[in-house]
Amino acid sequence: MKIEKIFTAQAKAKGGRDGQITSNNQVLDLTLSTPKEMGGPGKAGSTNPEQLFAAGYAACFEGALGVAARQAKVRLDNVTVEALIGFGKAEDGGYGISADLHVNLPGIEQKQAEELVEAAHGICPYSRATKGNIEVNLTTTTNA
């Protein structure tokens, strides 16, 4: 799929999973450490690529929910999106990731909330990029 770019994010990694990442504007300057569960040192105060992906996906999906809500003329308040990114061995012997998105849309009916989440899943660039490539599970709640 070809896109007309309107923005390009830039970051540099050095040292792989146990290195450093920086964004070109220096806002991100983070130490990476492989989690202990994956055989790494799990250094305190560090992050990993899966956490960064989870943060990006959650933020992007919430933005897509805003678009879906505006299109449906629905007002949303206090929305939360929690992304859980799993890492593990794939069937082919390599490694892969999965995504579970827990979306809470308080104050609206469950059916309407589920419709908005499905619409956002079709809008969100992260969802579009992962479609057919990784397992993505959506959970929708309407808890206050």
UniProtKB/TrEMBL annotation:
One Pfam family this sequence matches: OsmC
PANTHER family xrefs? ORGANIC HYDROPEROXIDE RESISTANCE PROTEIN-LIKE (PTHR33797:SF2)
Protein family according to the UniProt entry: Belongs to the OsmC/Ohr family.
Name of the featured protein: Organic hydroperoxide resistance protein
